[in-house]
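Regression test case RT-17, inverse folding.

Input:
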């Protein structure tokens, strides 16, 4: 049961609130570190085309069709297969970078 639903039935004690805050904080820091590695180490290793595809697909959530249309305007490549190849090469680079960071 979510804390909100549980607390709607019975208000939490100050100790329960402090414990919940501590729990949330303990989960936030590892996520911040992961984001920092992605932003400062992984994404900078990609060239402009690779970065474009990875950001649009995984960070911004565009579909392949949408990416193909946007990419055609920006880089003059209109084939989805080409974009998928770019993604493949980007992930090869990312794997190599992760090996050096891990």
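Golden output:
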């Amino acid at each position: 049961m979510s804390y909100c639903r549980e607390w709607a039935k019975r208000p939490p004690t100050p100790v329960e609130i402090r414990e919940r805050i501590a729990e949330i904080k303990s989960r936030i820091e590892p996520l911040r570190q992961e984001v920092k590695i992605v932003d400062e180490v992984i994404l900078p290793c990609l060239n402009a085309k690779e970065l474009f595809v990875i950001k649009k697909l995984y960070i911004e959530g565009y579909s392949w069709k949408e990416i193909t249309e946007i990419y055609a305007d920006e880089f003059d490549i209109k084939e989805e297969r080409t974009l998928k190849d770019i993604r493949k090469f980007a992930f090869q680079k990312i794997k190599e970078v992760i090996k050096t960071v891990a």
